[in-house]
Amino acid sequence: MEVQHPIVAIVGRPNVGKSSLFNRITASAPVGTRAEHDASGSNSAHRKGKRTRKFAVVHDTPGVTRDRNYADVEWADRAFTIVDTGGLDIDPDDRLIDNVQLQVDAALAEASLILFVVDARTGVMPHDTTLADKLRAADKPIFLVVNKVDSERFRNEAAEFYTLGLAEPTFTSCVQNDGIYELLDRVVDVLPETVGREPQAAPAMKIAIVGRPNVGKSSLINALLGEERMIVDDRPGTTRDAVNIRIVHDNVAFELVDTAGMRRKSAINDELESATVQRAIHSIRQSDIAVLVLDVVREIAQQDKAIANFIARHGKASVLAMNKWDLIDEKDNTTHGAFMETIAAQLPQLGYVPRVFVSAATGQRVTRILETALVVHREYCTRIPTPALNALLVELRNAYSPPRVRGSRPSLKYITQIETKPPTFLVFGRNVHRIRPPYEAYLVNNIREEFGFHGTPIRIYYRKS
Length: 465
Prior knowledge:
- The chain is of the alpha/beta class.
- It contains 14 helices and 15 strands.
- The chain folds into three domains: 7-190, Rossmann fold (3-Layer(aba) Sandwich), CATH 3.40.50.300; 205-380, P-loop containing nucleotide triphosphate hydrolases (Rossmann fold); 386-464, GMP Synthetase, Chain A, domain 3.
- It has helices spanning 18-28, 34-40, 44-47, 95-110, 126-136, 152-157, 180-190, 217-225, 271-286, 302-313, 335-346, 367-380, 386-399, 437-451, and strands at 7-11, 69-75, 78-84, 113-119, 142-147, 170-171, 205-210, 243-249, 252-258, 289-295, 317-323, 355-357, 411-419, 424-430, 459-464.
- The strands form three sheets. A six-stranded mixed β-sheet has the order 2-3-1-4-5-6, sandwiched between helices.
- A hairpin with a 2-residue loop joins strand 8 and strand 9 (252-258).
- Helix 13 packs across helix 14 (437-451).
- It starts with 6 loop residues before the first strand and ends with a strand.
């Protein structure tokens, strides 16, 4: 049976520090006991030079968090799932903000406990009072978290939050990491037990869904999930943070990462967007597979090519998802082939990558993305026996020897695979520094033809022997 941890939802009006609290909790509560944390000290991670995990983008601009962002944490031998939500606005006048409210409502519906975050610096605001009434109607345990208590003055002035009529508040400062442990102690004291048993299964395959803005990345994830989990809007930039979502398809666990649309540097004109694009880049680097989403009703843009270059340069296995295929009118027997030729010509750096034609709007073939990613990942992890590699090398060398360069002909004697993810090979020989790109392409293409490696780059290094 799948394990189901109790869910703790962080809610509040915009810009009260919800994502900062989410980051502090996920950083302060890795697997371990309270005694271990007390023994090491609250700032031990910094003293030891370790980087604090940061799951959510934090910025002074209200409304940075829009989708639900989940993370599993453990405290005092109790596991639970924390979910960060967008800022609650009682009277939204924007279609996008209204969608944010739906995401918050969904988080409240599934939560076992609510952390209602308010801002000590601003005091009780009218929206806080209205939200307190809304949350009480949910009939679930509510912890009032008075955040930004960065000095004794704010603690003394925070008495006014008792007027909200909620339980004893917990005072926190995410900047100073104060009050986080006390809050976690209170949380685990009231949470219900975890349902089910932790399955002994392979780690989830992490898939980063990437592409330029407005190509349908979030819509694809919604189609795969069968629910409106990700906020979708026709304005570019709806997704601002990298959001991780777990899904099981055909008994295989996947972790989908919805990323912000990646625009060219000259088009990024604010600090917030720069931060979100950096998170998208980090997600590609940390993923097992990158799914590059292209919009078939729009021409391949320079930014599509730049993202493809980034994927190939970093040795990442990938799949091309050709979205909005349902919007192509008057298809015939040549339409698919023509698109394949166009992609091959426009994105030659990903010529080895499988292409899946899908429609997020209708759900057409969207699960093929996961099925193809699974095949590609197997190829990405494949290791070829050395005897088979050298048999191929002899065959290739006899059919076409490396050309002479400045009077000297390279001599290839031996090949072995030294790494997977991506498949990496080491060739020994004489004058190997004179191997030119066309001959290396000859080797790579024939390795693919013989052993597969569809969807993954191949790297070859040389050593003198």
